[in-house]
Amino acid sequence: MISRKEDWHSADIIAALRKRGTTLAALSRQSGLSSSTLANALVRPWPKGERIIAAALEKHPSEIWPSRYLKIKNNQLYSGEQQHT
């Protein structure tokens, strides 16, 4: 049986970044983005932003946002990863 995992809460993502000594705004700026740009990935799918945040947390984006990456149909697991950036 395949268990369904929930996406991390945005506050948990922010806290995990702070525990690593950074902030979402700082990570945005380090990535050449406006300080508020990465916040978009917390509320809507954005693969590029998800990859940046996940890399900072040493995770794969699907570990943080499983609903955006994994789909289950007829007990089969499918990738829901979007290919655009």
TrEMBL record:
Domain Ner winged helix-turn-helix DNA-binding, residue spans: 7-75
UniProt keyword list: DNA-binding, Transcription, Transcription regulation
GO MF, any single term: DNA binding
Entry keyword DNA-binding: yes
Record-linked Gene3D superfamilies: lambda repressor-like DNA-binding domains (1.10.260.40)
Protein family: Belongs to the ner transcriptional regulatory family.
Name of the molecule in the record: Helix-turn-helix domain-containing protein
Species this chain originates from: Limnobaculum xujianqingii
